[in-house]
Write a structure and sequence with these properties.
The structure is a homodimer. Chain A has 15 helices and 11 strands. In chain A, strands 1, 2, 3, 4, 5, 6, 7, 8, 9, 10 and 11 form an 11-stranded mixed beta sheet that branches. In chain A, helix 5 links the parallel strand 8 and strand 9.
């Protein structure tokens, strides 16, 4: 595959957070292990139990009857058996403890909703590997990594919890998720409305498939974020690609690039240069996703409004190539070396290891076929068109499978979802994923909440003194809807008896 | 497995009909073959095209990328591109041409709904065999025989039709099915509401799973049908089992049984006697399903109200064993030899070969786990309890798979389906499957229609001069709902533009 597709294959969702987790306390409590974790502020303890459920590897076939252990976390400090609720995080492409620690919103609202918090790990991520360390060896072992299987896991898990936890049986369950997890939350409500009374789908680009939205919308929003964060910022980045290309023509230029940037491994050929540009592009993308209004320590520590900080180095697109690239490199250091502790930069890494990049790469090659493109005009990147045929070839080479780009729309309805109810779609306008999200109300009970100053699911993060008013408003609307769903559930239950 | 379970394993749905199909006319018309068939009355011609679509063998996994040809029939004589609709029969466990010819209701309403009729064959039945004649060889080849895969086939097919048939794109599709096909129609609307605007689920026992209804309800309704059809009728049948058992104790008794009944193969051992009783039980069950108010020629020709005819032979439970059994055998002959052409009776057959008994046996052993039981008191059968463990063992022996009795409820919601809309559940009160059906309105748009004089989906059959008023009323209500769905669809469409 040409680099553009590789670049886009690497594109995974990010669910940045502000928590550092200390090792589990390992205090045995019945059959559960308890794990305590602390946020970076060191003050709010998150206490949850770590649990496992045996799940069928294949819910949709009976030939293989194997099971695997799916991990899930439960926090019930604020749960009330009388009139309470269950908030169920539909885990996405990563370690569930990481999502648990980075979805402070659920912890913040637990008391007022008298809610038990459940965080369910997505199969093939974290510890929930259907075939252990063989899970990614080939397409046969990967055959059960689909959104449908993940939703079935969630459904089976909730039925299990209701059956086994005294007091849980007659309580409403609300699905909550962000990013791909937000898509899962929405789809879970659509497909299993008998199991969850509603869903909060934060930053869920459920329309980033097929022709539902233009393929360029994602990178245009990334570009806008840089444009608004400093004069000439996006123009400087747009100019940088040709500057790199010009340096890359000679061995001396490659050496200069490697040294100026402090790369761990020197660039030696054209492919390396393509990788460098892909890595830089992903950095800008990641910054757009985590452009939060306060200091956060996702992956590497970042300052508040990190794009503004980055853009301070990117004010002039008209300087010499060398000067421009040195400015770019300083900007990159904001993302990769804010703490000043990196000795060199590794262009094969952009995100936390808590995210399962292998798994997501497979999912992107099968069901989650999201078209991306750039034209260099409406965005600040080198032009790349979306080429499904090439993408398919690359997927076949990498995983031995071919994408089915129409399937997700057939399965989950595309834009034709108005017959469903009780789903909140929240999106931050700074978040490039909002381009594929639902940003207008569809019906009275399929509502869109937009957060002008929000990046990738800011609303799901723990409350913060620097939260903009718009995210406070969004959260309070979300809680209002959830309370309504809970009231409706109990009212219906009373009607039955 | 003990016979009771075998008996129940054999229990398949029946979709009896009144049509004799002449061989296809084979007149080529573009790429379609046209097939013309005639009802028994010889007057109403059914003209449809036979078509095939390439479907993924596995919609829910990407390792195997094979496809197979799914057959579907289209009749568009009454279809209008302007303001029309598409009635989509969600094929069940048999040859789709048989269902097509036995769902006269769709043909009868096509003109007033300006409807295209589509009949989609269920995978693993009729010609739609994913692995040709290897489809049933082992659990590996059978792994893709599930309701979820079948629904996915339907969804993909409808998307394909809308894309390829000019004028179909912006038309509402209504799912229609009877029996297991009715379950599929209801589930299709629940899971793919973006693809069908509503569903008519006729005689669909969607609650005949787990503990949703008592396991004895089915056989109780069979018994009631015989009780109401003649004095002492059900009591006579109840007495017959012990009479058979007493005869079966000796070789002479076995010979007498075999000869008196005119069996093709003589009974020689206890297992044969169990098989005989299972076969007789199934005959009574089948009669309860096809107890139609007019002469019909399903399997074997049957008189109007066949149970009444049968019961004329079963008026006295207190005669000698020999006399009682001779009466039973005369009654059986109503079902097996109404035309007088059978030379002997074969106890390994009870239903038309158009039904795929192998496929249904596998489905009953995996997803479609329907508990049945008898107690000999509330019903006229020998007592048999429902034994899941034993059932599971037998399934494993027969197919190498084990049933997952909770799965269907987890997947499709059990009794908790009130968030769905636009489904008509119709049931005949004579139909034993009505015990597992929805017979009371759930909401304004999830409505139940009951037909007091109706057997198994009488409403889906072609109109007949002897139709009781209640089925005429049911059909007119069904049409009224369907017209409303169509109107709503077009009103919404206008609103969008």
């Amino acid at each position: 595959m040409g680099r553009p597709t590789v670049l886009l294959l690497l594109l995974t969702f990010l669910t940045p957070g502000a928590a550092i987790r200390v090792p589990p306390a390992m205090k045995a409590l019945s059959s559960l292990r308890w794990s305590t974790s602390f946020t970076s502020r060191g003050t709010v303890a998150k206490k949850y139990s770590i649990n496992y459920i045996e799940q069928k590897v294949n819910h949709f076939g009976f030939d293989a009857d194997e099971t695997f252990k799916q991990r899930y976390l439960i926090a019930d400090e604020y749960w009330k058996k009388n009139g309470g609720s269950i908030l169920f995080y539909t885990g996405n492409e990563g370690d569930i403890t990481w999502f648990c620690n980075n979805t402070g919103f659920m912890w913040d609202v637990a008391a007022q909703l008298k809610a038990m918090l459940v965080f369910a790990e997505h199969r093939y991520y974290g510890e929930s590997l259907p075939f252990g360390n063989k899970s990614f060896t080939d397409s046969r072992h990967l055959d059960f990594l689909t959104s449908e299987q993940a939703l079935a896991d969630f459904a089976v898990l909730i039925k299990h919890l209701k059956k086994t936890i005294p007091g849980a049986k007659n309580q409403p369950v609300i699905a909550i998720g962000g990013s791909y997890g937000g898509m899962l939350a929405a789809w879970f409500r659509m497909k299993y409305p008998h199991i969850v009374v509603g869903a909060l789908a934060a930053s869920a680009p459920i329309w980033h498939f097929g022709n539902l939205v233009p393929c360029g919308v994602f990178m245009e929003i990334v570009t806008k974020d840089f444009k608004r964060s400093g004069p000439n910022c996006s123009e400087t980045i747009r100019s940088s690609w040709d500057a790199i290309n010009r340096f890359a023509r000679t061995g001396a230029g490659l050496r200069w690039l490697s040294e100026s940037l402090g790369l761990c491994t020197a660039l030696t050929n054209t492919q390396d240069v393509q990788n460098l540009k892909a890595w830089i592009s992903e950095t800008w993308i990641n910054l757009a996703m985590v452009d939060y209004p306060y200091e956060s320590d996702f992956l590497q520590p970042l300052p508040a409004w990190p794009i503004k900080v980055v853009c301070q180095y990117l004010k002039n697109p008209s300087v010499s190539d060398a000067q421009l690239l040195q400015n770019i490199f300083q900007a990159l250091n904001v993302y990769y070396n804010y703490s000043g502790q990196a000795n060199c930069l590794n262009i094969s890494e952009t995100t936390t290891s808590s995210l399962g990049t292998q798994g997501w790469s497979y999912q992107a090659c099968t069901e989650m076929v999201m078209p991306f493109c750039t034209n260099g005009i409406d965005d600040m990147f080198e032009p790349h068109s979306w080429n499904l045929r090439e993408f398919s070839e690359d997927c076949f080479k990498q995983w031995g499978v071919r994408p089915r780009p129409a399937w997700i729309i057939t399965m989950y309805g595309g834009k034709n979802i108005s017959s469903h109810t009780n789903i909140i779609f929240s999106n931050g306008e700074l978040d490039p994923w909002s381009g594929g999200g639902v940003t207008k109300d569809i019906t009275d009970t399929l509502v869109a909440i937009t957060i002008p100053e929000g990046a990738h699911h800011l609303d799901l993060r723990a409350r913060n003194a620097f939260d903009p008013t718009t995210v406070l408003l969004a959260r309070s609307l979300e809680v209002r809807h959830m309370k309504q769903w809970i009231r409706d559930f109990y009212a219906n239950q009373r009607k039955k008896h």
